[in-house]
Specification:
Helices cover 40% and strands 16% of the residues. With 294 residues, it is α/β, with parallel strands linked by helices.
Length: 294
C-alpha cells in the first residue's frame, strides 16, 4: 500500500463497499478541487447491504484505522448508505477527533419536491432495514403528517453488485442491470405526475447513481431523481478548513489515490469511465484484517 505523504492540511478519506462511492467522490472533487483524496473501495466484501451489521461495523473500523495510519486526515466521508446507517455512530464514538460525514437517503429533499406525495426509495436491504433509516423515515413522516406523504420502499438485492460487475464490461453491455432496474421499478408501482403516482425517486445507494440513465428511461422524464453526492460534498466543506483555490496541490489529476482490495482492473475501468483518471491513480490494497467476521 503506497503511503500518503505527510501534509500540513492532510487529505480527505472516502470509503465505500465498492465503486459506488465514486459518485460521491465526483461531487467532492467538483466542490473542492484543490483538496487531496484517498478513496478505499472495499470490493472484496461488497455489497455491504447484504452483510450483517456486525460485519459492516468491523470493516468500517478497520478501513478507518488503515486510513488514519497514512498520515493527517482532515475528515472521513462514509460514502456508503449501509455503512452510514449501521456504523457511523460507532465510528464517531471510537474516533472522536475525526470528523465523519455520512450519506443517507434524501428523504427530506424528496418531501420538499414531491407534488403527488408519493416518493419511491431504492436502497439495499441493509440500509432500509437499519434503525438509523427507520428513525430518519419516522422523523420525515412526522414532519409531513399534515400532507399524508407515502414513501414506497424498495430493497434492490443484487443491483449494487451487478453495477460493480458491469464496470469492466462494454458500455452497451447492460442487460443484467437493465433487467434488475426494470424489475425493481415495476415492483414500486406507477411513476408519473398524476394523483397516486410516484413523482420522486430517491437513490438510497451510492452505486445507483451510475445507472441513473437507465432508471430515467424507466420512470420517465418528469419524475424527480434525487441522490446525495452534492449535499455530502457541501457538508464536508463546511466541516473542514478548505485549502484556498490556488493551493499548490490544486491539480485535480495529481491529488487523488484510489485503493481496492478487489479487482484492480475494475477500479481502473471505473476511474477512467467516471472520474477521467488514468490507471496510475489506482492501487491494490494487500493488507487485510485478521478479524473479519463472515
Amino acid at each position: 500500500m503506497a503511503p500518503i505523504e505527510p501534509s500540513k492540511s492532510g487529505f480527505i478519506g472516502v470509503f465505500d463497499s465498492g465503486i459506488g462511492g465514486l459518485s460521491v467522490l465526483q461531487a467532492l472533487r467538483a466542490e473542492m478541487p484543490q483538496e487531496r483524496f484517498v478513496y478505499w473501495a472495499d470490493s472484496d466484501f461488497a455489497p455491504y447491504g447484504e452483510r450483517s451489521e456486525q460485519f459492516v461495523i468491523e470493516r468500517s473500523h478497520f478501513i478507518t484505522q488503515q486510513l488514519i495510519a497514512q498520515g493527517p486526515m482532515k475528515a472521513l466521508v462514509v460514502a456508503c448508505n449501509t455503512a452510514t446507517a449501521v456504523a457511523i455512530e460507532s465510528l464517531r464514538a471510537t474516533f472522536p477527533s475525526l470528523p465523519f460525514i455520512g450519506v443517507e437517503p434524501a428523504l427530506k429533499p424528496a418531501l420538499a419536491q414531491t407534488k403527488t406525495l408519493r416518493v419511491g426509495v431504492m436502497g439495499t436491504q441493509g440500509t432500509l432495514r437499519s434503525l438509523r433509516f427507520e428513525k430518519l423515515l419516522q422523523s420525515v413522516l412526522n414532519e409531513a403528517s399534515s400532507q399524508s406523504c407515502e414513501f414506497v420502499l424498495q430493497s434492490c438485492k443484487g443491483l449494487a453488485i451487478a453495477i460493480e460487475q458491469q464496470t469492466e464490461k462494454s458500455l452497451n453491455d447492460t442487460q443484467a442491470i437493465d433487467a434488475l432496474c426494470a424489475h425493481y421499478v415495476a415492483s414500486m408501482g406507477s411513476f408519473g405526475l398524476a394523483p397516486g403516482q410516484i413523482d420522486t425517486l430517491v437513490l438510497g445507494c451510492t452505486h445507483y447513481v451510475f445507472v441513473q440513465d437507465i432508471l430515467r428511461q424507466l420512470v420517465g422524464p418528469q419524475v424527480n431523481i434525487i441522490s446525495t453526492g452534492e449535499a455530502v460534498a457541501k457538508q464536508t466543506k463546511r466541516l473542514i478548513v478548505p485549502l484556498p483555490p490556488n493551493a499548490e496541490n490544486a491539480d485535480m489529476s495529481n491529488n487523488i489515490q484510489l485503493w481496492t482490495n478487489g479487482s484492480l482492473q475494475a477500479l481502473q475501468a471505473a476511474a477512467s469511465r467516471w472520474l477521467d483518471l488514468s490507471s496510475e491513480h489506482c492501487l491494490l490494497v494487500q493488507t487485510e484484517s485478521s478479524k473479519v467476521l463472515n
